[in-house]
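Exam revision sheet. Question 4 asks you to relate a sequence to its structure. Input first:
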Amino acid sequence: MNNFIWHNPTAVLFGKGSVSKLADYLQAANIKTVLLLYGGKSVFKCGAYSQVTDMLTKLGIAFPEINDIKPNPRIDKVREAVARIKASKVDAVMPIGGGSVFDTAKAVAAGTFYDGDVWDLFEKKAQVKKALPIYGVLTVSATASEVNGISVIMNPEREFKTSLEHQLLYPAVSVIDPEFQYSLPEKQTIYGGVDIIAHALERLLDGDEDSEFMDDQGYALVRNMLRIIPELIEDPKNYSARCEYAWAASVAHSGFLACGRESRGDFSSHKLGHSLGMLFDIAHGATLSVVMPAWARHVYKYNPVPFARLAENVFDIYDGSDEDKALEAIEALEDFFREINAPTTLRELNVKEDDIERLTKNAAKNLPFGALKHIDEQDINDIYNLAY
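Answer key, structure tokens:
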């Protein structure tokens, strides 16, 4: 294993009824006003909004609101919230929702203390120097934004979706009450589950051959997700399965699985998926179920070993050469995506073959990327064509 620093400052309040425990943290920090951020009706349907606002009211904490934050969150909402805070100061940002709302909250937290356009931080024209504290309530598990310092935002004007990462952007406290996720649409559970699996695979398939202990943690996570997702499709209110799903999501992209690795992970599939989300506003998990098997088919020949290990440790495939096992593992992963009704081709996403050139040019804006293989523009084009 390589040297690493493991530091995660987020306090996680996990389990049913955990919103009430947030009060102690808010009082200890002497919070008087929070900016409440959320998406749409789902926060009312699941009960999270009423629990949070009742608690804030009892504490005497004011909560101005900004809503209508979309999946694939946009920079315009970040700018709106930053302007609101600069006009009327708040002590903290409080997202209620999933990764899109948490990502927006982080960008807002950083942008509040920057005098220029907050998008400058994403383009690395400026650095995060200070940020408001974030006290979040999670209602959709997938991205692990509740336990990391990463914000992914898209700028439609630039046709660019990219990330900002900083230690100051870790939430101070995140509430994870799995009961809030009972009312999620089935597709959201499926796509979130794909994202969780992908976060583990981005590490497992990065070509690092000296992190067996960490690999074993990743294999266990993927194996369990192959069990948990079908269980939740059958019974969305299975509390035990919801708990495992939610915590798997947090672990998968908290930084833990990257400890000791030569790289932080490959993440080519995520970069390629971001362009699909940016140009066609497709759910992130749906982009990954399409792109990741295509990426794997394109790159496994450069190093079949991590794919062969995946075959053995997750799919119980032991016969044949490393190349044979690698291909079987890729097919098994794609078969699972089909079984849970996740898309596996660009055609299913209503992306036309003529769109591939545009996709290629957009994804190439993120170059360089890739750990198992350093991806170039021709690779991007080949992968999208394989996915078609």
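Marking note for examiners. The two ends are 38 Å apart (CA to CA).
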